[in-house]
Amino acid sequence: MTSVAQSNGSSSAESRRTTRRFKNVLPTPIARAKYIGIAISSFVVVLVVWSIITGLGLVKEMFLPSPLAVLDVLVKTTENGQLWGDMSVSIYRVMVGYLLASVVALPLGILAGSDPRFEAAIEPFVDFIRYMPVVAFVPLTILWVGTDDTQKFLIIWLGTFFQEVLMVADAVRQVPRSYQNLGATLGMSRFQILVRIVLPSAMPRIWDTLRICLGWAWTWLVVAELVAATSGMGYRITQAQRFLATDTIIAYVIVLGVLGLVFDQIMRGVGRRMFRYLKGRS
């Protein structure tokens, strides 16, 4: 009995040591409040370093204006309505181009991920196109559709569509084959397996794909508005560059970053509500 107790005691001690070792090696999840605190701290650190660099005059103001100068631009453009007008135009262009891409990319990606024959028909071509730089299409899009908003939509569409098709297809292919075999065993048709098993299982990854592609849409918006535009965030950045208004450039770049972050957090929040059954989802 004594030897058994000693054996159990040594096993428990070894188990505790192993647990402590894993805790020291493997990262553990943190509370939401702590996550937000760390995230805010990183922004504060960057702001402090920026203030120190400009305050000590280590960089000429023409190349890096102070945070106060950038803040002054933001206040003035907000008060005169210029910033709100540029933001509304850019948001409109991003959402239209992104939604047009998603409406086409989602069904194509789902079909490519669920049917090998359809995958063979479209994926090589999509792969071929996605490696072409979207910037190179800017002159062509101007020739094809002119310089109005349709051209901006097309640039954003080209920048997000092909990536989205492949990522959605990959999300569908990640669904375990055993799930589909179970559906077939229960007598489901191929369409029923797709709708009742594959899509619900793939939906969290598909949602992440939509969120990531929305971020890319904001990137391509700037490309679309830098050339042949008369309004929008990218247009205003181009105008500021001509007059060496670095404070305006940085102010608008910051606003673009904030807009992208806001939309990303909205998508994350919706995703958390839609997929509450997933633990550890950020």
Describe the structure.
- By secondary structure, the chain is mostly helical.
- The chain folds into 2 domains: 1-64, no CATH class; 66-274, MetI-like (MetI-like fold).
- The protein is 80% helix and 0% strand.
- The chain has helices at residues 2-25, 32-55, 67-79, 82-114, 116-130, 138-145, 149-173, 177-185, 190-226, 233-242, 246-274.
- The radius of gyration is 26 Å and the shape is globular.
- The chain starts with a helix and ends in an 8-residue tail after the last helix.
Instruction: Specify Rg, calculated over alpha carbons.
Output: 26 Å
Query: In this structure, how is the largest beta sheet organized?
Result: none
The percent of residues in helical segments reads: over 70%
Arithmetic mean of pLDDT: 88
> CATH architecture of the largest domain, please?
Orthogonal Bundle
Regions with pLDDT < 50 over 5+ consecutive residues? 4-8
Into how many domains do the coordinates divide?
Answer: 2
Q: Which CATH class of the largest domain? A: Mainly Alpha
In angstroms, what separates the terminal alpha carbons? 50 Å
Topology pattern, helix = H, strand = E: HHHHHHHHHHH
Shape: globular
Using the coordinates shown, work out and report the CATH topology of the largest domain: MetI-like fold
Task: Give the name of the CATH superfamily of the largest domain.
Answer: MetI-like
How many helices does DSSP assign? Answer: 11
Give the DSSP E fraction (strand runs of 2 or more residues).
under 5%
Q: Give the tally of β-strands.
A: 0
What class do helices, strands and sheet pairing give? mainly alpha
